Amino acid sequence: MGLLRKAALVASITTSLTIFILTAPGTHAQGAVVQGPAVHHYHLPVQSLAASLQEVALASGVSVGVASGLVADHRAPALEGDFTPQAALVALLAGSGLHARQLGNGLVIEADEVRGGSSARPGEGDPAILVTGSRIRGAPVASPVITLDQSAMREAGATSLGDVMRDLPQSFGGGQNPGIGINVPTASGTNVGGASTINLRGLGSDATLTLLNGHRLAYNGTRQGIDLSALPFGIIDRVEVVADGASALYGSDAVAGVANILLKRDYQGLETSANIGASTDGGNFRQQYGAVAGRKWASGGFVAAYEYASNTNIMSNSRAYAVSRPGVIIFPAMRHHAAALSGHQSLTDTLTLEVDALFNKRWSLGGYATNNAGDWSLSHADTRSTSRSGAIAPSLKWDLPHGWRLSLAGVYGTETVTLYNGIFTGANLTSSASGCYCNTGSSVELAGDGRLFTLPAGPAKLAMGGGYRYNSLQLFRAAGSASNIDASQDSFYAYGEVSLPLIAPQQGVRGIDRLNLSGAVRYERYPGVASVATPKLGIIYAPFEDMTIKGSWGRSFRAPTLFQQYSAQSVILYPVTSLGGTGYPSGSTAMLLTGGNPSLRPERAETWTASLEYRPHQLPGLHLQLGYFSTIYKDRIVTPITYTAQSLTNPLYASLVSLSPGSAAASAASGNPLLFTNLTGAAFDPARVVAIVNGTSLNAGRQTIHGIDMLADYRTRLGKDGGQLTMLGNIAYLSSSQQLLPGAVGAALAGTLFNPPHWRGRGSISWSSGAITLNATTSYIGGVEDTRFNPRVKISGMVTQDMTARYAFGPKSGILRGTTLSLSVQNLFDSHPATIATTAYYDTAYDSTNYSPVGRYIGMGVTRAW
Predict the structure, then answer these.
(1) Residue burial 382-397, b: 16+ Cβ < 10 Å; e: rest
(2) Three-state SS string across 722-785, please?
(3) Lowest mean pLDDT among 46-60, 88-102, 109-123, 806-820
(4) Helical pair 85-93 and 49-60, crossing angle rounded to 10 deg
(5) Do 607 and 595 form a contact (C-beta atoms < 8 A)?
(6) What does R_g of the chain's alpha carbons equal in angstroms?
């Protein structure tokens, strides 16, 4: 396997270096340049649509015709960036009920009702666009796709992709994310190094596949998530989220779905930004400074970005709901440098080189006072981390005859989190420990897609490919430590996907406007673990132009993480009462086994979705979507003991407990003395051990997840000079339960402490007119139940309101031309989490997986396009 790993690395480095050689001035013939539509930079304020159309025509030299009076009552939104004439008109006409049509060498503006066929839908009809959820360019996707673009994020006051994804109702704040408390069960969340990851449906950061421009990246920490904060916020164009199983297309980890982060392309110019703000309850002083620069030329272009950001910590003492455990840092102090680059260059008429690269370095500091008074000057423990990540992803794309494209792509990335834990008495360091979570990932893939044959409804298309992936984890705690890990995993895969348009609008079939079938299958082999084949089927049916019904069924899988397999098994000796035991003789003890399991099997899931989309032509700009999903997740890898204090009392754990173990206790303790911990305060006596509890990772019986997504999007203009109104809504309902072992009684997950709530929702209304944009957003996170007690304790949810105002100076504003000022207030009424019961001085006194401690946050920003 070493030869293959080296080949993947060499392919990545070789193709990335090619960009410097072949794109240097004079290295390729002028005749080899592909001449596409001219791209121009536009800086248009909110104004009449007629004025914006005239400026596009003047800047591009393309004739733009419009019928008299057709645009008289319309206003155009602000337009900033680099666009072809067609793309500029699409942006200006969005939600207006108008569209642009090619006519000879020019463009003509028409009302939507005169257009033949079905209305344009995202990702459909353009043979050059690859939408997340399919490996075929221009193919419609049978799974619902949620798109979050840069402008909408900024209008809502966001400056961090991690915050954006945690606000998404389909996502969950558990898994690997900053601010996760120590009292959160490992299965629900943790914080190693301050990384932000996506956790769709609460199935785990390791069950959500995160891509960058379609590429995999190196994992972060131990949970196989991808760190969102590694990217400068300004370079992000949009994020496409498919909350549906997609292993048939993308392989392991895509059980809950896929999130594809797409970077800006063909950016021209320079934009700088600065943001500053703080929480009114104290702490969380944030600064963010960034720059995005790009250049476009006839045969290629690039965009590069840099960002520096920092925030101070939030102490429990400053929050009334958390002060019961004073001296705890409930949100860590962090700072980071992030840089990213994306470029493309035509090497010949048919061959294009593309490269994406990123680098990030982040520092994080958390900790807690080690006394009930919460006094750091007496004693405290802190955790310092330094994270470094980097990746390079070059690819070659070769356009072949008959619409086919062949691509060769390579990725090499690293993610290193170095931890340092110190325990202090006063100012004196009394003990310390350090370690490193070092991940490496590389891959190489050869893929192609294009037309198979032509059906009456359109071309049948095929995508196929294969490749090799390599991941490694080195977990280093101390020289010679028995808990160190040095493990790696290879995988080989091949896939195929087909898209068949059976009926199209031009055929005039009664009761069927469009009908499309799709299918995919992927085979993946993990030497020494398993081989898995995962299929997926999809159908898109439109009974008439305004309505689309979609359905999908598929199987997905997730290979066990290297940490889950090879984490060292340890033995902890407790007083039996600490594990919930009662009625035993004084001095009785119990053992808890923890750690990895090299015999773990891949997790397997079966998912189906159904959705209904409605775009009424009577009300242009309105898009409604209702979706249902169901997932049966088998062989789920879990750490079975959620709450240690219930080990001997919870009937769910009965099959994991060995009573009266006798000599087995002595064997377990002597197996590796370096990993034996005695917490009883007395000498170890095997005769006093009354129980052994197996808390090592195992394949659980099954999880059942189902729910409903409701989304609404409405964009319209409020008459003459009334501005543009945009209303967005997203409501998600989730129900999930877990059967720990075959035959065991199922237990609820969703709606319980440290798991996703049943209901989440987010709605916004945005109005723009002239230079002003105003946005109001309301978010709801439902309540949960604390199942640690009988009877259960209800924990109330949170409702927050955010307000954002932006003012963009126009082209006649002198030195302020191109400047945008913003003011945002998040959580306007200072809503806060409910307090939960705690048992230790380091516990976070609220559900830190669901509710934010930030409170009311006031931020200001300035952006300048140069």
Answers:
(1) bbbbebbbbbbbbbbb
(2) CCEEEEEEEEEEEEEEEECCCCCCCEECCCECCCCCCEEEEEEEEEEECCEEEEEEEEEECCEE
(3) 109-123
(4) 170
(5) no
(6) 28
For tokens 């087995």, name the residue.
Answer: 664
All structural domains of the chain, each given as residue ranges with its CATH number in brackets, are 33-114 (3.55.50.30), 146-560+600-640+697-865 (2.40.170.20), 572-595+642-694 (no CATH)
pTM: 0.84
pLDDT, tens digit (0-9, with 9 covering 90-100), for 448-473:
999 999 999 999 999 999 999 999 99
- How far is CA 185 from its chain centroid? 22
Residue 211 has which token pair?
Answer: 């891509």
Please state whether beta strands 98-103 and 106-111 pair in parallel, antiparallel, or not at all (unpaired).
antiparallel
- CA 145 vs. chain centroid, Å, equals 13
Amino acid residing at 537? L
Q: Which two tokens stand for residue 236?
A: 């992000």
For 250, left (φ over 0), alpha (ψ -120 to 50), or beta? alpha
Confidence label for 640 from pLDDT (cuts 50, 70 and 90): confident
What 3-state DSSP class applies to 88?
helix
Distance CA 771, CA 215 (A): 38
- E strand residue ranges, 138-195: 146-149, 175-176, 189-190
- Retrieve residue 204's tokens: 């785990």
- Measure Cα distances from 133 to 139, 214, 293, 552 in Å: 9, 10, 30, 11
Beta bridge partners of residue 538, listed in sequence order: 518, 552
Sole residue written with tokens 């945008």: 820
Among residues 355, 449, 350, the alpha carbon closest in space to that of 129 is found at 449
Could you count the other beta carbons within 10 Å of the beta carbon of residue 30?
8
- Give the whole-angstrom CA distance, residue 361 versus residue 335: 8
3-state secondary structure 472-506: EEEEECCCCCCCCEEEEEEEEEEEEEEEEEEECHH
Q: Are the C-beta atoms of 39 and 82 separated by less than 8 Å?
A: yes
Q: Which of 381, 424, 223 is nearest to 840 (CA)?
A: 381
95 against 177, higher pLDDT: 177
Residues 6 or more apart in contact with residue 199 via CB below 8 angstroms: 171, 172, 173, 174, 175, 177, 205, 208, 225, 256
Buried/exposed code over 824-840 (b: 16+ C-beta within 10 A; e: otherwise): bbbbbeebbbbbbebee
Contact status, residue 199 vs residue 860, Cβ threshold 8 Å? no
* Residues 6 or more apart whose Cβ sits within 8 Å of residue 706: 628, 629, 630, 631, 735, 736
User: Average pLDDT of 689-713?
Assistant: 92
The phi and psi torsions of 51 (rounded to 5 degrees) equal: -65, -40
> In this structure, what token pair is assigned to residue 677?
């911990």
**Structure tokens that stand for 254 in this block:** 């895509």
